[in-house]
Write a structure and sequence with these properties.
single chain, about 400 residues, alpha/beta, Aspartate Aminotransferase, domain 1, Aspartate Aminotransferase, domain 2, 2 domains, 3-stranded antiparallel sheet
């Protein structure tokens, strides 16, 4: 029944997320069409990569066809393979765990903490008593820097463990004086259409390590070692491994370039919306939003409210009512360690992830809610408060 109630976008009062196409998207796309080169390694894609790296504060970026492709390529670049273990938080996209499995490695699913919903360092330390993973995947959920980022980064350096920052939902989020993506060995971003920067489908790998970005390019170009301008043309189609065809096509790179050039305005608007939600739900008994940890400045990609005094069934019914009233909402992540296909990879308690899933509702977080002083956020909150009176 729930699936039948999903609202078509044109009938929604408030959308979950929308791309902010207010820049030079059309100009750049038309330039690509005029050039006749639609495939990979286009000029606009190269500029997109350069500007994205500058935005985060890293040297190198490689644009790929999806965030999941970026995760897979990242793991290959780090040499992750058979008999290796990779720590993954339980409250995140399934692409985090499936990319590990694609490499022939074994994911270790650990529970998250209850404030920023990031990987809990206590659970990491508990697993380290058993064995040492080759890599840890730290995910910044919904645009909020993970609470234990700095501690996990220090641990990884001490123990010689690769740290992968999954920033797919956290474009521009800051912790201290750095943007997320700078705390690990390598970072991954998604530029799917509903993200802060959206091209339809896409992802990026970022790092300061030239060797790693070269390896990423190798694996993303079918493991061909002779794709550079310095190589003889006749070696182009020789291969030395089993790679993937993952590079971003030029049309999407053109959209990405326009988006990154307009990113400051997008980030400002998202923060206006997120901060309004933080204000609206401050100090309300039985309800809370994701915590902005000290010293952080989230990008507020999505805004989730936890209805802590409601049962799982009540929360789901409340969600259905909100849909009926024209809100495009989303459920939280279904914890990876609580799904039959991934249960065998779970380590320790999965309690917090399960709680977030059962109690949470993600409310409309569109960049356009920043219009009119965020009055839309106030109306969304009033709709929720009215629905809550029914339960």
């Amino acid at each position: 029944m729930g699936a039948l109630k999903r609202i078509k976008m044109e009938k929604a009062r408030y959308s979950l997320n929308e791309p902010y196409l207010k820049g030079k998207e059309k100009e750049y796309v038309l330039d690509v069409l005029d050039s006749g080169w639609l495939s990979v390694k286009g000029k606009h894609t190269k500029i997109f990569e350069e500007k994205f790296a500058q935005m985060v504060g890293l040297k190198y970026a490689l644009a790929l066809q999806s965030g999941t492709a970026a995760l897979h390529t990242t793991l290959l670049s780090l040499g992750i393979g058979k008999n290796d273990k990779v720590v993954v938080p339980n409250f995140t996209c399934a692409g985090c765990v499936t990319s590990v499995i694609q490499c022939g490695a074994t994911p270790v699913i650990l529970d998250v903490e209850n404030e920023s919903f990031g990987l809990n360092i206590n659970n990491v330390n508990e697993f380290l008593k058993k064995e040492k993973p080759k890599a840890i995947m730290l995910v910044h959920i919904y645009g909020f820097p993970a609470r234990d980022t700095k501690e996990i980064a220090e641990l990884c350096k001490k123990e010689n463990i690769f740290l992968i920052e999954d920033c797919c939902e956290a474009h521009g989020a800051e912790l201290g004086d750095q943007r997320v993506g700078k705390f690990g060995d390598i970072a991954v971003f998604s530029v799917r259409s509903e993200k802060m920067i959206g091209v339809g489908e896409g992802g990026l790998i970022l790092t300061d390590n030239k060797e790693l970005i070269d390896k990423a390019f190798y694996w993303a170009t079918r493991a061909s070692p002779h794709r550079g301008n310095e190589h003889p043309y006749w070696k182009m189609y020789s291969y030395s491994g089993i790679g993937m065809n993952y590079l971003m096509p030029h049309l999407l790179g053109a959209v990405g370039r326009a988006q990154i050039e307009n990113f400051d305005e997008i980030l400002l608007r998202k923060r206006m919306v997120g901060e309004k939600y933080q204000s609206v739900f401050k100090n309300i008994d039985g309800q809370r939003v994701q915590k902005k940890i000290d010293g952080s400045n989230p990008s507020y990609w999505l805004n989730m409210v936890l209805l802590e005094d409601k049962s799982k069934d009540e929360v789901r019914k409340i969600g259905e009512k909100l849909i009926e009233k024209g809100l495009v909402i989303r459920p939280p992540f279904w914890p990876l360690g609580n799904q039959d296909v991934f249960k065998k990879f779970a380590f320790g308690s999965q309690k917090v992830g399960n709680l977030l899933f059962e109690k949470g509702i993600i409310l409309p977080s569109s960049v356009f809610l920043a219009d009119d002083g965020c009055k839309g956020v106030e109306e969304i909150a009033e709709i929720l408060f009215d629905v809550l009176k029914m339960f």
